[in-house]
Fold this protein.
Amino acid sequence: MRLKIIILALGLLQLTHTNQILADTQTSSYPNKPIKLIVGPGTDVLARMLGEKLTQAWGQAVIIDPRPAAGGIVAGDAVAKAPPDGYTLLLSSSSYTANDVLQPKMPYDISLDLRPVSLLATIPIILVVNPDLPVNNLKDLVNLAKSKPGQLNYASAGNGTAPHLAAEMFKQQAHVEITHVPYKGTNPAITDVMSGQVQIMFATAPAVLPMIQGKKLKAIAITGTKRYKGLPDLPTAGEQGFPGFSYVAWNGIHVPAKTPSTIVNQLSSKISEIMNTEDAKEKAERAGFAPNSLSASEFEKFQEQDLARLKIIIRDGQIKPE
């Protein structure tokens, strides 16, 4: 009996050793076939740029696979359940952390089933108002809102979107009462702010920059910690007396949670190298992004901070999914 146990143990050791050799062989030759990059909601500008650069660097095609349904839940679930071999990537965004906190029944857990690889860029959020609103800075807006509690309205592209959550964070930190008017998309929301149907809106920079430049919207503040290159004279909320008010949308790359660290590190290193080139920075900035490459470990900490912030905003704002 004892001999059988020893033989069985030796057999298991040999199998483990063989599997490790196979795993090492797979990771050392990575990538040796096409890579799929699944894209959820939002623009695919970064995905296409990154895919093109990875293809050039590695000689393997990167196939862009759009799956915009359900605010990123479909795309995230597809990657979470994909083989953890580095050949299925997710263009993740701030929608994914918001879903994780906001949605009561998610088919996957972003912290357990997906692994951060690299942050690509942040997307500045701009607080804009109708040009006829008698405010020129954040202090003016706060004073006006406090003088008319509940009478000012703010538009968003939908419940749980990054601009909506930025507005709720503003309400909580400025202690003002403004009324949320959700729209089914960014464009109709912008149209109603320009016409004066709604007075205020938080929106991603690419969506409202042309209207700001055309004087159809008045920019009041940037919600990030740094000024936006497209509007260098526009101060941040922190510069206007709200140092704790910082909220940005973002895009990054995730893979299935059990993807080997060797592959994750290889991906992270190559993506960082690409995103730090002048060409990539220029293309990202032209599309309205702020390039901000983070390593896998840095991105994981960034994600944890984002989840913690969202839990407070969603809880205190009593925000419910649509």
User: Anything to note?
Assistant: The longest helix spans residues 2-28. The radius of gyration is 23 Å.
